[in-house]
User: Fold NUDIX domain-containing protein from Miniphocaeibacter halophilus.
Amino acid sequence: MDIEIKVKESRFNYRVGAIILNNNKILFMKDGKGDYYYLPGGRVKLHETSEEAIKREIKEELKIDVEIERPLWLVENFFVEDVKKEKHHELGIYFLINIKDNGITKKNKFIVYENNNKKLEYTWLSFESLKNEYLYPEFIKERIFNLPKTMELIVEKEENGEYI
Assistant:
């Protein structure tokens, strides 16, 4: 069971995200629900560690085994989701991930279908292009240039479509 609580028009999520790098590019994805990019990963399950969750999510989505280099950020994010317009309070742990190349680093874009036939579109975005992309989490646009050596806490709060 995913760690997620829904209360009226609000939702709490506990998720993990993968920072997968390749030649000054970072892997982002879209799932067809919205026009924005986001980082590979997903929700943590009850009684699952964040490290177990990121390994499971990447295995499910990309069909590859990964090695966790280190946790980068613990993010407390408050936002309104773009498609359903639900208020979200999300805790996310973002990991720097090493992959065993199965060919995905050679393709600029590629598509993977999950077991439920859900289409996932992956794209390698250059660090420089991030500032012009519609993507979440927003802090990646700046922080990707200087990855922390130890985990940092980030709090992002969106009000009326603007991060404050």
Q: What stands out?
A: The chain has two helices and twelve strands.
